[in-house]
Amino acid sequence: MPRIVVAGSLNMDLVMQSPRVPVLGETIPAGPFVTSHGGKGANQAVACSRMGASVAMMGRVGDDAFGSELRESLEREGVDVSAVLTTEGCSTGVASIVVVEGDNGILIAPGANGMLSPRDVRTAAPLFEGASCALFQLEVPVETVLDGLRLAKRAGARTILNPAPFMPLPDEAFALADFFIPNRIELEQFSGISGLAEGASALRSRGASGIVVTVGKEGAWIFGDAAPVLVRAPVVDAVDSTGAGDAFVAAFAVALAEGETLRDAVEMAVCSGALACTRFGAREGLPRRAEVDALAAVVKQKSPSS
Known about the structure:
- By secondary structure, the chain is α/β, with parallel strands linked by helices.
- It has helices at residues 40-50, 65-76, 118-123, 142-155, 171-176, 184-191, 196-205, 244-257, 262-276, 289-302, and strands spanning 3-7, 11-17, 33-38, 54-62, 80-87, 93-100, 103-109, 133-136, 158-161, 179-180, 210-214, 219-223, 229-232.
- β11 and β12 (219-223) form a beta hairpin.
- The chain is globular and about 50 Å long.
């Protein structure tokens, strides 16, 4: 069983379906509304666990009911929460999500996530020893992510940076990440270039080596030393894309940790991301290994030459 460490955010998601996004100052009827356990870090930890990995989580919650609930939910999923710390006098992170025709817009109040410090990660650094992969996102401070990447690399873990939400990064961050996994919008934000190939080339010039760009229902592009490759996603009946990126990253990490090739890891990842779109809620939509394997087998049967 591969060991994976995730350093990142824990949020309570407040999710509302809506016919459209209201303009500023407008009120429109919408619903239904649900609360859901989320945070990109916690979602990726749970998704890795559901894919069959042994997972440890580094993060912070507030001393409120949301924080206790999020810790308990991770424990129920089999995630080691010994490095999930409680910040006194601080709220747990909250994400307000509007879902419109299967797509979403998200506002995040980071709360305790913004308090996760380099010292916290250094204290928990023994968790990186023997880990196959270490996953990072940008819902916690950049300096904490950088320290985590350095420590994980030093411990011999493969490092994966899912740079969401966008915030400026030093070149060191690109060099420290074995795999940099943005979506199409984030690639343009980091590179300043709208073309995928040109944007990836710009980031490689800043130190990024393996770049995998998710492009929604189209699938994902692989950019590296070889020619770019598009791995197409299977067609599904999508109802909510919240959490699809986290399902993708987690499946990719687990597949790599199990020794799969880069192409095979991305093929598994697009299947996982597609399945996540078929259910409402970030955490609720994260698929389990048997589902992903079954869909991947169907995809391979339809595309035997891939």
